[in-house]
Structure formats: structure tokens, C-alpha cells
Amino acid sequence: MLHILFFLPLILTSTHVIAQDFCVANLEGVQTPSGFACKMESEVAPDDFVFSGLGIEGNTSNIVEAAVTTAFVEQYPGVNGLGISAARLDLAPGGVVPMHTHPAATELLYVVHGRITAGFISSSNAVYLKRLRRGDIMVFPRGLLHFQINAGKRPALAIASFNSPIPGLQILESALFANDLPSALVEKTTFLDYAQVKKLKALLGGTG
User: Fold this and answer.
1) Residue ranges of the domains in the chain?
2) Which of 26, 64, 102, 156 is deepest in the core (most CB within 10 A)?
3) Whole-angstrom Cα distance, residue 38 to residue 35?
4) Which stretches make up the Cupin type-1 domain (predicted)?
């Protein structure tokens, strides 16, 4: 009897909890580490829950011969607060998505067609490398450096999913060479010679 009396207030209280079905992002507001503020439910429309961009082939006419089309919260407000997002990866023959990390999400990559060599490096510097074919999936743990390369002679396509609507992205090469970090410091911290640093900065638009 005492056990029943103890749990009764919990049962009664739980009936007054209001569950929020969704929190479509108000992109005009400020983004915080926990996401965007919610739109008023009266302003939410079906289109907020639909994103058609992953059906469009990306433009791979660039230095890396690859294109990533993201369906993160900024492009897809309906995923705000739901712990999920996606992206499309197009790789021309020889194309590469350079070493990068997603600080806020684990990535699951599904190969739609083509052959992709992909891998990641653990915090103990162990390398996990695999050639993927159509239908394969590979997981890249949160925050670890990873990459994808077209390993075939035809274009490759993959779809990535993330367990965050805001996975974050930091590309290693851009972080080192596409900003104004002084070349002398880059040389010292990467063991590259000064000429190599200046060449890479010029290639990627960096200064310093």
C-alpha cells in the first residue's frame, strides 16, 4: 500500500506533461548550441518537413572534384531539435572529400553507386580504411578525422546521415591554409617547409 501511495503523485503529475512534437527552426533567430528557437506552430507548413535538394546532382567542377549538398537545419528547418540530418556526396572520378571532422555528430555513409575509398583516424592514430561498393555503409565516429575518395573510373554517389541537425564541419586543409594564420606558425606546427605552406595558402586562398 505504501508503494502505491508513493508512486501515485508521479502518475498524476505525468498526465500534465506537455509533449512537443517538433520545433521547426526559426532561421531568422539566433542559433545556439542547442539549436534555433521554434517557429510558432501556426506558421509551420508541410514544406518545413520536406527537402528536395538531395535529388539534385552536385557540381563537381572544382579543385576537389566533389560536391556535398547538405540537409542540415539551415537548409532543412524541420530537423531542428530532432537529432538528425543528411547530406548528398557526389564524387567525380578522382574526386575527394578531404580530411575533415564533424565536431557535433557521428556520420553514417551509404554508397548509392560507384566505389569509394573511405577511412577515419582514431584518437590513438589508428587508421580504419575500407573500399566501399554499392550498398555498403560505413560509420565515422563523432569528431574524428575522416575522408572519402572516388576509387573508381565513374562518378560515385553516397548519402550521409548524421545524428545531429547541426553536425558542424571543419576541413583540415582549410583550417591550416585558408585563413590568415601566419605561414611561419603553420610551418612550425606542421613540419612543412615555408615554400610548401605558401603554395598551399595561395591555392586555398589563405594569407599570412
Assistant:
1) 41-168, 175-204
2) 156
3) 9
4) 61-198
